[in-house]
Every structure is written in C-alpha cells, then in structure tokens.
Amino acid sequence: MAQFEEVSKQSSLHPKPAGLVLQYGTAGFRTNSKHLDHIMFRVGLLAVLRSKKTKATIGIMVTASHNPEEDNGVKLVDPMGEMLAATWESYATTLANAEQEELISALNEIIEKEGIDKSQEASVFVGKDTRSSSASLSQAVLDGVHALGGHSKDYGLVTTPQLHYMVCCENTQGKYGDATVEGYYKKLCQAFTQLIENASNRTDDQKHICVDGANGIGALKLREMMSHLNKGLLVTIFNDGSKGKLNHQCGADFVKVQQKPPTGIEVHPGDRCCSFDGDADRIVYYFADSQQVFHLLDGDKIATLISTFLKELLIQAGLNLRIAVVQTAYANGSSTHYLENTMNVTVRCTKTGVKHLHHAALEFDVGVYFEANGHGTVLFSKAAEDKIQQLAQDSSIDDERKRAALMLQSTINVINQTVGDALSDMLLIEAILAIRGMTVEQWDRIYTDLPNRQLKVKVSDRRVIDTTDAERRAVSPAGLQDAIDGLVKNYREARSFVRPSGTEDVVRVYAEADTQESADALAHEVSLAVY
Ligand code: NG1
Ligand code: ZN
C-alpha cells in the first residue's frame, strides 16, 4: 500500500535508537528530549489510527509538564478531551519500541485487532509547550500524522488543558465552545465576570493575585487571557520566561514538594500567590503570614473550597444532586476528615493518576477531583447540567434559588471539565474567594493539614511492590504491610503507605502524623522497611 511506503520512507528520517525501550505511562512518554524524535513520529501514526477508529478528532500534546527543560514528552487526547483509553496505551508502547523494520507490521496488527477502516478520514490536533525541543518534536508528530494520510491542525504554543478543550469542542460540534484559543478565553472569562457580579465592592487589593508562571506556557497564556478579564482580576506575573529557566526552582511541583515559595517572587504578608506547572494543568496557592511563615494551599484545600461552595449552591438552589470529592492516598488525612465529618460530603479514594480520579468522578452528578499536587477539576453529569440549566431559566422560582442556579451555571462555564486546568481553576478559586469575601488566610484555616513527609526510595526492582485498596496497602512483598502497620502504631494520628512510582524508577513513601518530627521519623522507618 502506497501509504505504508510513505510511512517507511518517512520513518527512516525519524530513526529509533537501537535498544531504546520506553513505556506509555500515566504521563504518556516522558524522558530526555534527545530520545524522543522517533516516539513523536510514531505517536503521530497512532493518533491517525485512533482517529479512524473513533471517527473523531484526536489530540497530541508535546510537553513534559513539570520536568526539567531538557526533558520532553507526549500524550494523546481522546475525543471528549479525556486521557487515552488504556488498551491504546499498550499499542503506543508497542509502536514506540518496534524496531525500524517491524514498524509496518506493528501498525497492521493494530489495524486488524481494532478492525480499523483504512479509508476513514483522520483528524489530529497538535499543541506544544515552550521547551526549546518542542518545536522540532511537534514537527516530528506532524510528519507522522501526514505520513499516514491524516489531517492536522497545529495549535502551536498552548497549555495542555487548552488542547484538551479544543479536542472536546471539535468533537461536540462547538457545543462545549469554539475550538479556538480566543473561544476558550471568551467562554472562561465571561463566566468569571458573571460570577464576580455576585461579589460586591471588592477593593483593588482583594482583586490582586501574584502568579508564578514556572517560566512556561502558563505565563504566556495568562497574559493573553488578562485582556479578556476587564479588570475583574489584577494579575502580576512572575517567572514569565523572560529570565529564568522552565520549572527551575519554581512552579507548582517545586512549591508543593519543597513546601516553600519559588525563586523569582517575593511573598509579602497579605499577598495571595499561586504557582502553575510547566504545562499549566496544575495549580497551588500560598501566602506568608504576618510572622513570615509560609502556608501552602494544595489540591486538597482547593477541592475543599470548591466542593463546599458547590454544595451550598446546590442546597440554595434546592437541587438534590449527588456531589463527591475524589482524592488519592496522598490527600492529607485532615482534608478527608473535614470533608466527611464536617461537610458531610462523600469522599472516594482512587489510585494515583488523573485518569483514575476522572473516571471515579464521572459516577456522581457533581464530581470534584484533585490530586494533592494541584491537578484537578470538576465534572458535571449531563443530567446535572440539564437540571441546572432548566432552573436558571425558570421564572417561577424565588430570587435566592434563581441566584444560586445562575451561579451554578456560570461555575460550569468557568470550569474546563476535560482535565485539570490552572487558568480555569484559578478563575474559579478567585471567584469563590471574592463571592465569599474570604481571605486566603481564612481559606487556609478551614482545616489544619496533618504534618506529612514524602520520600523516594531507590530499589533494584520497584515492581516487586504490589498494592491494593487504592494503593493504601501493600500486598507484596510478603511481610511489608505488617511491618508498616507495626511502625504506624507507634505514632499518633499516623498513616503511611508505599507504592511504586508510575513516572520515576523509585518507590514513594508517604507518612503523616501529629507532629512533623513524627511524620519524618515514620517516613524514614518505613523507607528502611522497603529495602
Ligand atoms: P507517580 O510518579 O506515579 O507518583 C506522579 C504524581 C501523580 C501524577 C503523575 C503524573 C505524586 C505523588 N505523584 O506520579 O500525582 O501527577 O506523576 O501523571 O505527586
Ligand atoms: Zn502538568
């Protein structure tokens, strides 16, 4: 077939280094950018097959998120803007690792297994972050798409969530919004403006936020978005890429892991600050109190703020919808306790990885999901959206219900339901704080985090650790869980678990307890038990 000849010809221009083996994991493919040219080309090929199979537009995002500038990576986006289906993750791995001469037969195998109609048209949207390697790597993606006869639309520099949004808009024939960056800003900013009409007399101080853009795409896109905000929010951007290096001592991951402010930003008492990560799908907030003590408001605090706001609106609107918060084992025990016992909100715990949280959130009318690291969003079921829509248009209800229904409607529109989105999450959080007249200090005081510690342990083979109960308990190697249980008993309010990382060759250890000393000691003892 002529198309396969083209693939063979083109693939020799994107040769695979002999012996290199990479796996499509929770973060897609991710490694040093030097090793990724052939991967990008092949992901382009796979996206064409996925598009033919689903008869829909597929997305490809070139980014390595919070990894250092030297790394890069790639992820596929499925038709509704969600992560690639799990069976196709293994096809991605097979294609990536096929030697040059096996590539066509590997493609054929997928075509046969999936019963793909080769004559079906294929359409692929491509985006990239600001890394220096992203330009040539996204060209390799486009080469792959074209080699197999697919159509492409290159969005150039966009955030990861913006690309997810475009794919969803395209496949819902514009029902979710316009598949343009301009359309994205208009939808979010209009909803934000409507929301803050419910917040009266805000001072400029209250409207002001300091944003650490991680020297990445988020800073660029935030600047673009600001022109649509009509002074509803006053933003000062730090680490905008003009001086510093991407993710270097800055960004959401740095702030969360180091529990300290990023470089390139001075946090004065009274300032409300937040950090994005390198592809702007994560956000964390922080401030310094009058004693200059640093306070972090992570994904758990964000989920609590958002779910409390939504729950109250649902009650005011008189809507009986099932709301839940989805977390992972890394969620601080205090957040889970507060949500379940004070807020009476259903809490679900899933395995680490956005796709697991997203999937669990779909089971509810309103599913708020956040990883502690700041990646998260809210999902509304079709039935919930319809009910809210109807109520917002109902002229027979009283003013309070009407106001709540309209706020719920704007909240739906400010949220990017396809994936966690720093820009969208920031607008929602800023709107909630404004509506409630709440300072970041008051938000922080909703509950107090239990002191915690995360450690990485290098082992010869991390796969010997197998877990159950949403990764909270180890089933192998034998005796490990008993050892952890024995150690945990020695501390108050303690909890600890271990799991193999999906993105690094390490075992992660997590511990929390009533004091920082206890959490540190427990984490240390558990990491010794892992060896
Ligand atoms: P691993 O390496 O599997 O722990 C990390 C993060 C996840 C998620 C993925 C990227 C922690 C503890 N883990 O996973 O939350 O962001 O990277 O998909 O932060
Ligand atoms: Zn990211």
Automatic annotation (TrEMBL):
Q: Which residues form the Alpha-D-phosphohexomutase alpha/beta/alpha domain?
A: 52-87, 102-167
The protein here is known as Phosphoacetylglucosamine mutase
Keyword set, alphabetical order: Acetylation, Carbohydrate metabolism, Isomerase, Magnesium, Metal-binding, Phosphoprotein
Residues that bind substrate: 371-373, 499-503, 508
The first-level EC class reads isomerase
- Free-text function comment from the UniProt entry: Catalyzes the conversion of GlcNAc-6-P into GlcNAc-1-P during the synthesis of uridine diphosphate/UDP-GlcNAc, a sugar nucleotide critical to multiple glycosylation pathways including protein N- and O-glycosylation.
User: Which Pfam family is one of those matched by this entry?
Assistant: AMG1_III
Which pathway, metabolic or otherwise, does it act in? Nucleotide-sugar biosynthesis; UDP-N-acetyl-alpha-D-glucosamine biosynthesis; N-acetyl-alpha-D-glucosamine 1-phosphate from alpha-D-glucosamine 6-phosphate (route I): step 2/2
Cofactor binding, per record = Binds 1 Mg(2+) ion per subunit.
What GO terms in the biological process aspect are recorded for it?
carbohydrate metabolic process; hemopoiesis; UDP-N-acetylglucosamine biosynthetic process
Q: What are the binding positions for Mg(2+) in this chain?
A: 65, 277, 279, 281
Q: What is its EC number?
A: 5.4.2.3
